[in-house]
Amino acid sequence: MLKEKFDLTGKIALVTGSTRGIGKAIGDALEEYGAKVIRHNTKVCDLSDPAAIEAFFAKLEAEGSLPDILVANASVQEKIPWTEFPMDEARREVQVNFLATLRMFQLCHPKMKAQKWGRLIVVGSVNERRPHPDMCVYAATKSAQENLVRGIARQVAAEGITVNNLCPGVFYTDRNKDCLADPVYGPKVTAAIPMHDYAMPEDAAGTALLLASDAGRYITGATIMIDGGLSIPG
Ligand SMILES: NC(=O)c1ccc[n+]([C@@H]2O[C@H](COP(=O)([O-])OP(=O)(O)OC[C@H]3O[C@@H](n4cnc5c(N)ncnc54)[C@H](OP(=O)(O)O)[C@@H]3O)[C@@H](O)[C@H]2O)c1
After folding, report:
1. Which region holds residue 162: left if phi is over 0, alpha if psi is between -120 and 50, else beta?
2. Alpha-carbon torsion 122, 125, 131, 133, what sign?
3. Whose CA is nearest to atom 37 of ligand 1?
4. 130 by DSSP, 3-state: which?
5. How far is CA 17 from each of CA 24, 43, 91, rounded to the nearest angstrom?
6. 218 classed as catalytic
7. How many helices (H) and strands (E) does the chain have?
8. Is 19 in the pocket of ligand 1 (CB under 6 A)?
9. CATH architecture of 2-171+200-226
10. Are 49 and 91 in contact (CB under 8 A)?
11. pLDDT tens, the chain, 234 aa long
């Protein structure tokens, strides 16, 4: 039965940044389909602090809660022209949006490999295809993450582990709800989207469930855009 392939009973999923926005919607979906979801935010483990990541994963290992499914969703971004972009902020974005993903997956991989089953889903961005002029650093960290996905996916495919990049377009979440509510800027944003509408966090949940479950077992190294057509060139 196809629906059984979506069942995540017995799986542990860590979804970073899952107390609100897209991460919450993904966490809710994985939970609805049976996974034990570890909810995470800055208070649980600030991903800008490498030592905090080590301590968080040591705790998960001690509790027997290392994830079978890792969704690297949390990210940071600042809108600042590249000419003035502070290097400390650039380093923070590289750490949270790229290095944290690499380190967390290194820490999950031995368990996934030993059990011949695992999932890494990174949350990218339409900025990989259309960099916002004032978010060049953020866009570059997401592109680095996409490249990492392809590099790692090939190497772990025979271990029963899939690695994919789920790419949102414009979603109505805390980070951009003020822009979308702006009477001048908001309509300009939606006019540029072929569907002429922005997404809600739940719009990412079905794709995440597919990639996390056995229903998506043959998908790896992929970038899946969830953007209403925004990344289509032309
Ligand atoms: N929204 C969009 O339109 C859009 C478009 C393209 C891509 N994306 C990507 O989709 C993902 C989710 O975006 P979102 O809009 O749903 O995010 P959001 O509403 O801003 O929520 C961010 C989540 O990440 C956590 N977080 C932020 N910085 C963190 C840190 N240093 N350490 C640990 N956790 C941290 C937050 O925790 P706290 O609650 O503690 O702050 C929160 O749970 C991100 O990777 C983003 O780049 C979003």
Report:
1. beta
2. negative
3. 41
4. coil
5. 7, 10, 19
6. no
7. 8, 6
8. yes
9. 3-Layer(aba) Sandwich (3.40)
10. no
11. 999 999 999 999 999 999 999 999 999 999 999 999 999 999 999 999 999 999 999 999 999 999 999 999 999 999 999 999 999 999 999 999 999 999 999 999 999 999 999 999 999 999 999 999 999 999 999 999 999 999 999 999 999 999 999 999 999 999 999 999 999 999 999 999 999 999 999 999 999 999 999 999 999 999 999 999 999 997
* Tokens, residue 22: 């897209």
**Any ligand 1 atom below 6 A from CB of 125:** yes
Residue closest by Cα to atom 39 of ligand 1: 41
- CA of residue 158 to ligand 1 center, whole Å: 31
Domain residue spans of the chain: 2-171+200-226
- Ligand 1: which of 42, 137, 231 to mutate, judged by most atoms within 8 Å of the beta carbon? 42
Predicted local distance difference test score (pLDDT) of residue 185: 93
Question: What is the side-by-side strand order in the sheet with 161-168?
Answer: 36-39, 12-15, 69-72, 118-123, 161-168, 223-226
What is the atom index within ligand 1 of the atom nearest the CA of 76?
A: 28
Is residue 27 lining ligand 1, measured as CB closer than 6 Å? no
Q: In Å, how far are 60, 177, 191, 194, 206 from 170, measured between CA atoms?
A: 33, 10, 12, 12, 17
